[in-house]
Structure formats: C-alpha cells, structure tokens
Design brief:
Elements (H helix, E strand, L loop, with lengths): L3 E5 L4 E6 L1 E3 L6 E3 L4 E4 L2 E7 L1 H14 L6 H15 L10 E8 L5 E7 L7 E4 L6 E5 L6 H8 L7 H18 L7 E6 L1
Antiparallel strand pairs: 1-2, 1-10, 2-11, 3-4, 5-6, 6-7, 7-8, 8-9
Length: 189
C-alpha cells in the first residue's frame, strides 16, 4: 500500500511515491519499493499490489523506446494487465497504473488505469496554464490536503510543485501506517 501521485502541467510531469510495501497478512513492512520511474519518454508509476506493479514498471522500462508517446505506454500497461488476468483473477489484482508524458498530439497528459475504474483507461488533459494530478492511496486520502495547497495558485513552477509533493508524502506518512516518510520523485520535462 502506498501513496503515489502524478502531477502535470503543459511543460512537465512529476511522479512521486513513498517507498513502503506491506505484507498484508502479517503487517510487516519494508521501505524499499520505489513505485515511479521513467520509461522511454514517459513517466510511469503504480499503487497497489507490489509484485504486479513492480513487474509492470520493469516491462515498461524494457519496452518503451525514446520518442514513445503516452498512449503507447498505456497500451503496454493494458497488455500487461490482460496477460496477468489469464493467471490471476481480475478482482484480486488491486492495482492502479499511472502514465504521464506527451500524447500523440504532443500535449502533456496523464493516463491512469485502475481497479477503482474497473481498469478503464482515464485520460486527464492539462488546461493551458494549469496543473492536473491523479493519485492513489491506502487509508489517508491526500486529495483535500492537495486542494488546499493549490487553491488560488496561478503559477506552478516545478520546484514549488516538488515541495508540495514531498509535503504530501510526509503528511500521509503521519496519518497512514501504510505510507513511509521516504519517497522517490521522477520528473519528465
């Protein structure tokens, strides 16, 4: 379990996750699982089942070539899930995959494929001059906290968004036993 989030403006995308993985049967946890990475010219991340998510990132890093667009990343993620479901029941997958990067039209966007939307790919486009984010969480929902941080903001410089993202992880770690204070950030410009 974790907090993973992807933020995107017209100019960049930032992915962040804490490092915790938890053995759900015993409650034992390890803070050694980065859940965001760069894959080709895209950013990828996951939340949910550690082994399934880690395997998805490995496949994306291997198969996405430089110059690959966002839709290609999402297609590889969907193909991975389709193959996984041949061996694991769909309702036991518990996974959210995130992708950010330039779409086929050259615009920055986010796509997520999640158990929460019955694994339907959801594309989030970025409004001119704006910022969008998508996230998944264990027990503590950081959404209201994020809304307060961004309320009234007119400009979204990368260093500021990076600080907000780090604070989000620290806030979640205080309130959610499934989230570690340590985090990994990946930036795509």
């Amino acid at each position: 379990m974790t907090v993973t989030a992807v933020f995107a403006t017209e100019d960049y995308a930032l992915g962040i996750s804490d490092l915790r993985r938890t053995h759900m049967e015993t409650g034992e946890h390890f803070d050694d699982a980065p859940k965001v990475c760069r894959a080709g010219d895209c950013l990828a991340g996951y939340s949910g089942h550690w082994a399934f998510g880690t395997r998805a990132l490995e496949i994306l890093k291997r198969e996405l070539q430089p110059g690959s667009h966002l839709e290609k990343a999402a297609a590889i993620g969907q193909a991975y899930l389709d193959e996984l479901w041949k061996h694991v029941p769909r309702d036991e997958t518990d996974l959210t995959l995130f992708f950010a990067g330039r779409d086929e039209g050259g615009r920055m966007a986010i796509i997520d494929i999640s158990t929460h939307t019955d694994y339907q790919a959801m594309k989030t486009e970025i409004p001119p001059g704006g910022i969008q984010w998508r996230y998944a969480f264990a027990d503590y929902d950081p959404g209201p906290w994020l809304e307060r941080q961004f309320k009234g903001a007119q400009d979204f410089p990368l260093p500021w968004v990076r600080r907000v993202a780090k604070k989000m992880i620290k806030q979640a770690a205080k309130l959610d036993k499934y989230v570690s204070k340590e985090c990994r950030i990946v930036v795509l410009e």
